[in-house]
Amino acid sequence: MTPAALLDDTRPVMVAPMAGGPSTAELVAAAAEAGAFAQLAGGYKSAEALASQIDEVRARGTERFGVNLFVPNLHPIADADYEGYAERIRDDLGGGPVPSKREDDDAWDAKVALLLQARVPLVSFTFGLPDRAVLAAFADAGIPSMQTVTSVDEAREAAASGVDSLVVQGAAAGGHSGIWAQGVLPADMPLLELVAAVRAATTLPIVAAGGVARPQQVRALLEAGADAVAIGTAALLADEAGTSATHRAALVDPAFERTTLTRAFTGRPARALVNGFVERHDAGAPSGYPALHHLTRAMRADAAAAGDASRLHLWAGEAWREARQAPIAEILDVLTPEP
């Protein structure tokens, strides 16, 4: 299955991979049953847990799906900067000893080997561009690749590397930006303009993503040169999504008034609802991924379990208010423009 064939044979609206819980096997299978392509999120999982999810998707009769991996493009942080930030957020962390700095590759080699062995239908990458040897291994296995880019320059480099298709992600997207370089934010360019600029620079299939919540947006992006559009935040309230109860409640809570791109939770830019933790720490948050992700991980898990939205990473795109609770099939129906 080539990316072009996939985009031609499914709905023009896809479901993006969302790490940390929302992307369940049930969500992927339900989207497939509705005629849409969806992906599992390999980030933060062990290879064994990811293998179990792949098996579950296939057990549900789904053979058209993708798996997303975080490329180990680390944004390193100096020990002094790590310790200084840990001290500033100590009270939010619970006041105990500061965890030692941890910088890892999210079990990259094990997950690459798993996806090659499992012969998944498609693999996608974010946070950076894989080595050409990795891309060649997937190509040799007949597994098409999809690369997240946030600029024309990244798109050109990805196309030259041999990837098969692109996810063009705008700054309005919820959750982590896929931007490659450390210490910078994605350009504040409307997704429509970014897609048109990337389309002018490459002939690769394009999936547009970031802040999409209406069928009119989908139609405009397709007319601008996208071959499909991916939704993330719009699927967070889907019945089949694994979004935590605390996160779900925050997405419909009128007390939250805006989103922002912040490094406060993970050390990498990510768009979230502005809550107490962001208000206290965004301005002083250094770049440092995955070290800050590991630093705050236990705090965020405890906050989710306790219903404490003030210390949780409430990932949300700029159009979060238009997310609705419904089966994913119904959400896709609403967002798919009339032919």
Automatic annotation (TrEMBL):
Q: Say which domain of life the source belongs to.
A: Bacteria
Q: Which reaction is this enzyme known to catalyze?
A: 3 propionate 3-nitronate + 3 O2 + H2O = 3 3-oxopropanoate + 2 nitrate + nitrite + H2O2 + 3 H(+)
Task: Give the matching SUPFAM superfamilies.
Answer: Inosine monophosphate dehydrogenase (IMPDH) (SSF51412)
Q: Which UniProt keywords are listed?
A: Detoxification, Flavoprotein, FMN, Monooxygenase, Oxidoreductase
Protein name in the entry: Propionate 3-nitronate monooxygenase
User: What family does the Swiss-Prot or TrEMBL record give for this protein?
Assistant: Belongs to the nitronate monooxygenase family. NMO class I subfamily.
Q: Which GO terms describe its molecular function?
A: nitronate monooxygenase activity
Species this protein is from: Agrococcus jenensis
Leader sequence segment: none
* One of the GO BP terms on file: response to toxic substance
For activity, the cofactor(s) needed are:
FMN
